[in-house]
């Protein structure tokens, strides 16, 4: 039975998470709790959990340090930051450290479920590729249909800074030939398709989550939240915040 560790000094928060897990499809996890950094560190060493859910503000130290220690011992562990502190620098730190999710309290059951789904799917994909020996970026290349393969590559890597040269290289075409072929088959340029796909992904995040705009921008591959907002408005004729407000009851 895989272990999950919740480290939070607020009993109500730990109880909410424990009850959610016990009544969900993730009840196969063995859930353990700690209310301080020191106890959390001890349980990390003893239990070797698959998932760590941690509050930033902890007696004795902070959740980022605990998450860093967890990733140092086990790079495959999924770390979820669960906090009331809505500070962009914290969110960016979580992204830079390779943590799996950043949830702002109070959080809904659907937001927790979405975070868990992403983590479980990613873990299964990683384990499958490790078992089969396949590389994620080359497993689905079809040389007879390079543009279809390039679309798969874009949809798998859009969160990262990707270029036309990288995508062309992934399907073994020269950049100029790939660019011409892409426009002929898709009716738009590579960059137009990539931008449109990122905007569509952002619309789902804006509708379904309460993540800050800055976080969404980085999650879909924009290096600047300002550029994301400008691009979004050009595409949708409204700002990201205005779009989100359309779905708030």
Automatic annotation (TrEMBL):
It comes from the Bacteria. Residues 3-120 form the Response regulatory domain. One of its GO terms (biological process) is phosphorelay signal transduction system. Residues 148-246 form the HTH araC/xylS-type domain. Keywords: DNA-binding, Transcription, Transcription regulation. The keyword Nucleus does not apply. The keyword DNA-binding applies. One of its GO terms (molecular function) is DNA-binding transcription factor activity. Pfam families: HTH_18, Response_reg. InterPro entries: CheY-like_superfamily (IPR011006), Homeodomain-like_sf (IPR009057), HTH_AraC (IPR018060), HTH_AraC-typ_CS (IPR018062), Sig_transdc_resp-reg_receiver (IPR001789), Tscrpt_reg_AraC-type_HTH (IPR020449). PANTHER family: ARAC-FAMILY TRANSCRIPTIONAL REGULATOR (PTHR43280), REGULATORY PROTEIN POCR (PTHR43280:SF10). This is Transcriptional regulator, AraC family. It comes from Cytobacillus firmus.
């Amino acid at each position: 039975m895989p272990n999950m560790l919740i480290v939070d000094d607020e009993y109500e928060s730990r109880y909410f998470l424990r009850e959610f897990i016990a009544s969900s499809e993730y009840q196969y996890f063995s859930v353990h709790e700690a209310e301080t950094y020191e106890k959390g560190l001890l349980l990390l060493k003893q239990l070797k959990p698959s998932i760590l859910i941690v509050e930033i503000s902890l007696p004795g130290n902070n959740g980022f340090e605990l998450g860093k220690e967890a990733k140092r011992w086990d790079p495959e562990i999924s770390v979820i930051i669960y906090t009331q502190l809505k500070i962009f620098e914290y969110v960016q730190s979580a992204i830079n450290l390779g943590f799996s999710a950043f949830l702002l309290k109070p959080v809904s059951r659907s937001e927790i479920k979405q975070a868990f789904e992403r983590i479980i799917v990613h873990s299964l994909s990683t384990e499958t590729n490790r078992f089969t020996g396949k590389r994620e970026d080359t497993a689905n290349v079809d040389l007879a249909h390079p543009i279809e393969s390039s679309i798969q590559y874009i949809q798998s890597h859009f969160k990262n800074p990707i270029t036309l040269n990288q995508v062309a290289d992934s399907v073994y075409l020269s950049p100029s030939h790939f660019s011409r072929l892409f426009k002929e088959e898709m009716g738009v340029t590579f960059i137009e398709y990539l931008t449109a796909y990122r905007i569509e992904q952002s619309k789902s995040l804006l509708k379904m989550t309460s993540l800050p705009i800055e976080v969404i921008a980085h999650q879909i591959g924009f290096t600047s939240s300002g550029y994301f907002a400008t691009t979004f408005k050009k595409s949708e004729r409204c700002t990201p915040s205005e779009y989100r407000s359309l779905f708030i009851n």
